[in-house]
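Students often ask what a holo structure prediction actually looks like on paper. The answer is less mysterious than it sounds. You provide the chain, you provide the ligand, and the output is a string of discrete structure tokens encoding the 3D arrangement of the protein together with iron/sulfur cluster.
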Amino acid sequence: MQNEKLKEINEQASYCLNCKAKPCSNKGCPLGNNIPVFIEQVKLGDLKKAYEILSDTTVLPGICGRICPHKKQCQGSCVRGIKGEPVSIGELESFIFDNISEEDSLKNCYKEEIKENKNNKKIAVVGGGPAGLTAAAFLARNGFQVTIYEKYDYLGGLLVHGIPEFRLEKEIVEKTVQKILKLGIDVKYNQELGKNLYLQDLENQYDAIFLGIGANKSSKMDVKRRKLKRSNSEEMNF
Ligand code: SF4
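The corresponding structure tokens follow.
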């Protein structure tokens, strides 16, 4: 890790006031991530512990750290932002995920809590995008036997095909997916609801079904001449 980057991260972490009221978490974070507590661990140089704290409330820290609207959420509620710049919470969150090792899995974080299939219940999760992955991970960590049914031949959904590489690197999505799958989640690819996958069949096999099929229909821009022809054969359709 470059010294310059480490120095910058330590400065950011030290800039946090460790506020007791923690508005960044309580008001600004929809997940309720324990922000000052994970930042404290960054200050102490214990990224594994920081990851464990984050993992209490999220299984997508490398992704949320990059694409959440921080200015509106956690950083928008940061006390430091009242008179100056807020703490770079998103950057700290990404930094933690980017620098934990392969061994620092979600399962290791929850070693004490996970008892393999302690509920003896099977759950089908339809859709392997962010909602499905999150539901699957939290269910698996709580001892349910989870199978994800995914339409494509990869997991991640919109995180993969809806967000460009410069905003969210595919490598980060893949690292996240691998950590989630290590919880013992089964995946069945190329399974599309209504085509080769039916709710009735799932109801017969599972105790519960989580539908995380997303909202993939894009909307058209409401602009005049949106159907102008670019050439004789091509139609522009925004
Ligand atoms: S509000 Fe800002 S300064 Fe206070 S604990 Fe949260 S991140 Fe730190």
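The chain has a mean pLDDT of 90.
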